[in-house]
Amino acid sequence: MKFVNIDPFERKSNIIKAHPEFNNIITLFDYYIKLIDRITDLINNTIVMFKLKEKSYLYQHDHLESAMYTLKSIKECVSIGNFSDANILIRKLNDDLFFYLFVLELDNNHQIIFSDQADKKEFELFTKNLNFFIKWNNNNLKDFYISRHALSYIKKSKTVNDLINKYKLEEEWRIINKKLNNFVHNNGRNYCRQNYKILSSNEIDQVFLELRNKVSFILNIVVVLLVLIKPHYIMSIDHIMFLDSNMTPPEGSQYWIASFIQDFFDEHLNQYNPELKIFLKENTYMEIL
To answer: The pTM is what?
Structure first.
């Protein structure tokens, strides 16, 4: 009898891929990858530029692009059973997307630089945070924390703050980040072993459930916050297409939203928390159905 020596990495990957929930979680990751890709295409011509002391800094939505590729890496880690690494990358995904929201909120407040009547404290806060962006742009960002700086800054928006407080999103976000930090810092034997241990079917069920919940929470909340911070970023291309064709756009078409965004609200956001969709309908000028 001839014994086949199966590579341990291949063996673990085969077990993961044979699990009945494997295709479902991979399909979910593929959906989110495509979602970010389509949002990136939708805002491709949107310019974000900052000026400070006669210097200009162009931002090209780098963090959104990075998040899409990080999701692809998470998907690959899951497919080979490197669950500890997948959680570490989910933490990176979270940080990239919240830094992105931070930059967009900076853009919303950019006019402070040019105002002679700006409140002194608001001006100082803006320039402090803008300098974080400039340091990032110059590849020397240090001592920047998503919770302390990015999240607290976007919460300066009353609507964003109302949403986060009303639905206790920050508490849930902190719980998820605490779990992710355990993997980042390898805070225990179980976190370490999730990269190499052969898990039972029930253990894989639990890991898949936790991965799904973490990624879904981050993507749902980030898209909701994106709509509150930059409502026009989800505008349907129909309005632009009419203008490009030298045709008069239908009245109100600038408030139509992209169909794939509407699908996301209906199929994913509703599943997470339908009240968030209602909040968006009541607090933005876009026509969310």
So the answer is: 0.94
- pLDDT digit string, tens, across residues 143-193: 999 999 999 999 999 999 999 999 999 999 999 999 999 999 999 999 988
- Residues 79-90 have pLDDT tens digits of 999 999 999 999
Q: How many residues are recorded in the chain?
A: 289
